[in-house]
Structure formats: C-alpha cells, structure tokens
C-alpha cells in the first residue's frame, strides 16, 4: 500500500502525515504523506515535462496502457475491494461493483483512445475558401488536475484519469483526504501498466491549501472536479482562464405514476436511496407519487427498507455501512430532527450509532425543509403525495439542482412529457436516478455542474480542436 506522494515517477515521503481511518471501527489503517506547496510545484513541473511525451504516444500505445491497467485491476480485485470498504465504509458487495465498473471505464477509454479524430471542412463553401483544403484534429490540452471525492474512490478517479490518458494529457491527481489509499494504488498500477514518468502524479492534502495551489497554477490547462457546489465556486473563482468540468450533486427526484410497477419502484428506491449510506450524488431523495399509489408504494418501500442489513461493510450480508465521518451522521440526524419538529414523520430508521445512520424514510415533509431543498448525501429519502402526474413534474423540477431525475411509467406520453419538462442532465425511465452506464454522457444542469463525463465526452473536454487550412497552389 503506497502512502507517499508520486512525483515524476518516484514515490516520495513527506515530513507531515495524516491518518486514514477504518470508517466502521475508527482504527487507523495508514498514515499518508501530506504535500507541501513545494511538492505541489514539483508535481506540476513533472506533469509539464511529461505532457509532450504523452502527446507523442500513439493512440495504440495509450490504448495498450489502459488495457494493461484493466488487467492489473482484475489481478488485484479482492485487495482493492477490501481497501475501498475499509477507507470509505462502503459495503463490500458494492465495492465489488465499483471495481468492475472501473475496469469497464478503463476499457471504454482504451477503445475511445483509438477514436480521437477530426473531420474535413469544405472551406470552399465560402467564396473566400476557393483553393483551400481544410480539416481539424484534436490535440491534448497538456496538464490536467483531477480532484476526486470520497464516495467512489476508484471509479470516479478512473473517470478522470482514463480519459486524460486516452487524450494524451499528463495528470496531477488529488484524491479526497478521507479516502486517499485507493487512488494511490491505482496510480501504482498505471505506472506498472507503462505510463511514462510524470504522466501521473499524486498529491495528498487539504483542499484549502494543496487543492487551491493546484487550481491556481498557470501550468494547469484543465481542472476536473467532483464535489460540492460551494467548493466548485471557490475553484472557478481561483482557476482563472482554465477549462473546468464540474460534477456537483443532486436532490434525486423520482416520479411515480398510477401505472407504475410498485414492487419494482420500492425495490429500486430502497437500493437507490440507501446504498453507500446515501452518499451518492444521484441517490434517491425525493419521491413523488400520485394519490392512487402512494399508500401502497409507501408500505412496500418501508418493507423493503426494513429488510436492509446495517453493519460492518466487510460482512457480505451488509447493505448499509457507516457514513464517511461521524460528523456527517450527526449532521443528517440534526436535519431529520429539524424536519420532525416542522411536522415530518419518520416511518423507519431515524437512528444513529456513531457514524452509522439507519436508512430513514420521511413523510409529511415540505419544500422548505433541508431534507428537501438541500442534497442530503445520507441514507434519508422522503415520499410525497401529488394530485397528479403533471403536478409531480412541477414539484420535482423545483430545485436548484439538475443532475438526474427518474420517472416510473409505462405510458409513452408521460415519458415524453417528463423528458420535455424536467431540466436535468439525465432522465431515467423505469429506474432510479442512480442509473449510470460508464460510457454514457453524464453531468448536470443548473448548479449540478458544468460539462459531461463518460469517456468519449470527457476526452472531448480534455482536448483542443486545431483547425488546419491549406492553400493549394494556383
């Protein structure tokens, strides 16, 4: 397990260190090097030197490195699964899914690396273009800074590093302080897979110092960040003239019509609201149901939720482990308490032990409550009655967020109406907002973000278009 900083192809130890804890037991599992500002500068210098080396790699060579990374991930799958669960608190059954998805992400990137191409442009479509031959190609940006969150410490790192490599960029990674070990292991595998020295650099430390130094530096061409809107505002205010991709969360609405399969809805929502303790940016949070189904849906949803096993994330039987920190469990406990004081009722859950918060379903909520207007990022979901499907669409769209929303219906007109009216980056029909295939365009509208991830789309945002116009001889 690497606990140092990766700079220019070498692992280095820093004087300052910080602990990484088992999120269930609280015991320290590692002490990780904390970067100084000099370390940040060295990592950026290494990436700057490596950028032209990466740009000269053929698309075949980049693809082979990415495929070799998949092979190495699979060879150490059980070790990585356990590490994800230890440092993030994610139930190991879902850590297994995350490793599989990361393998898919790198595989898609390897395929897309061979499809980074341009087009011809008919310049003679303009009177001034007579005698010119035109085409454009994509060129790598140079140095990409990737700042990643705690909740998917492998696959969300993969979604930033894999397209950066496929596009021919050099990268500096700063993973979340709470879950730095999985990202470090991935960097180790990328080096083993054949990345040139300095093409991937790893910097650990606080966002307010290390992260800020990274985003301000003039050598950085692109910042890709997943986290909160508040942090994103700081990043964009400090970044200057750099490209940014921001993925910033959601308040996960689900709309249930009278023709929905209620057992399917209940099962999907129990999983979608509570896996990874609800710490997923597309978790189910607000469920709107029409009068004819709300009571039966509520009963089934509560029943499915009560069947979930809460406990040690390393136990195969566990569905819901701890939250990332006790203070986060205390935060959501307070939010639920405030909601109950304003009239909400907890139908199940509403219980905390240390950093573990039991899956909680609320009724009688209103739009002014924190559990409704803010991203809960916790195992809490609310179910609300709506007079009809049209009103449900209206209420679901009354949010500052806009990442993904879902609709359960068999009626094509309702589907099309939802697609037309909901201002979200993704509309999921007959599944929850959690659905994501790793090659699809993924990102949000409004304060849910800027740009799109998904390998082809991330590569487009990590390259420049270079236009070429050739004047032919007279």
Report on this structure.
There is one protein chain. The chain is α/β, with parallel strands linked by helices and 474 residues long. It folds into 2 domains: 5-248 and 447-470, Aldehyde Dehydrogenase, Chain A, domain 1 (3-Layer(aba) Sandwich); 253-439, Aldehyde Dehydrogenase, Chain A, domain 2. Helix content is 40%, strand content 21%. The protein has 15 helices and 22 strands. The chain has helices spanning 37-56, 59-75, 77-88, 92-113, 155-167, 181-192, 207-216, 229-239, 262-274, 291-306, 326-341, 370-373, 389-396, 412-421, 455-461; strands at residues 5-7, 10-12, 17-21, 28-33, 119-121, 132-140, 143-147, 170-174, 200-202, 222-226, 243-247, 253-256, 286-289, 345-348, 352-353, 356-357, 360-363, 380-385, 404-408, 426-429, 449-450, 463-471. It has a 7-stranded mixed β-sheet, sandwiched between helices. Helix 2 (59-75) runs antiparallel to helix 4, helix 3 crosses helix 4 (92-113) and helix 4 packs parallel to helix 5 (155-167). The relative contact order is 0.14.
